[in-house]
Amino acid sequence: MTTADDTRAALERLWCEALGRAPGTPVPDEENFFDAGGTSLAVIRLHAGLEGKFAGPVDLVRLIDLLDEESFGSVLRAVATPGTRP
Asked: Which domains does the chain have, with CATH numbers?
C-alpha cells in the first residue's frame, strides 16, 4: 500500500528529475512547474515518469493544464486522489 508520504516522495523525485535538480531537493507545495524552469520537454519527462511510477495512463493535456495553472501541491493531490489523476 502506498502512503501519502510515498506518493509525495515519488512525485518530488520525478519533478526534480524533470527540472534537472539534485535528487532529494524539497519541492514546496506552492511551486509552479513552469515558473521553476520547466519546459515542454521537461513535461514529457514528467509525464513518462508519472505513467511509469503510477502504472497507468496520465492525460497529457490535463497534466499540462495543472502544471500551467496550479502548483506542486495541486498536482500531488490529483495524483494521490483515486479517480482524479491527470
From this structure: 4-80 (1.10.1200.10)
